[in-house]
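Protein modeling request. Please complete all fields; requests missing the sequence field cannot be processed.
Requester role: graduate student
Desired output: 3D structure, token encoding
Chains: 1
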Amino acid sequence: GVSVALNGDGGTLAVGAFGEDSNTTSIGGNQSDNGAFGSGAVYVYTRDGLGAWSQQEYVKASNTDGGDEFGYSVALSGDGSTLAVGAHEEDSNATGVGGNPADNSALNSGAVYIYTRDGLGAWSQQAYVKASNTGGSDYFGWSVALSEDGSTLAVGANLEGSNATGVGGNQADNSAGSSGAAYVYTRDGLGAWSHQAYIKASNTGESYRFGHSVALSGDGNILAVGADVEPSNATDIGGNQSDVSAPNSGAVYLY
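Delivered output (255 residues):
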């Protein structure tokens, strides 16, 4: 229960158990083999017309591995048919959508997995999502959010280290360790996901942890990003970002 999400009508519940140990992969596998310590799992429950709850699915990563902490973050679409799951300590060196998860040379880079439910209640994986600039210890997937229709995904990587500012900046200069970043992905009408935006704070600074939390509006057009230890002494809206005399005060940015 480290993470939970409900759909719009409250009839579908997703629960993340990031310390779960089963070695199985994907959907509905064997839960009894506890050979992957801390791999993580997500459980989906549904409520019937009489208000009775039952488990609908047991969800694992397609590349289950010990210590990945799959389920640390979860999000559901409004109708409950799209599920996003973050595994912020996943280790693959892949980038973008649908990359090769086998190269585990980017320790704790993080990943997000997208699952969809069909009209018969069957779940399947739709996408494996990595950052556009995958890096070790970036914690991509620390936070996730979905739009109402499930076609826009926001992902926070609160320990990403680029020194860029604003939207679409240079991802290669990693001189601002743990400054954090957010990434936006969109799904087309055929169910294919693609990277839409790379987002940094307007006042990027080392250890600000931008991306610690993310939220999307229903239409996916407004994004809120939290930086829980940003140190500006500003108050209210649009204040002076350069006075950093209030350590760990925190900030929220709207896009």
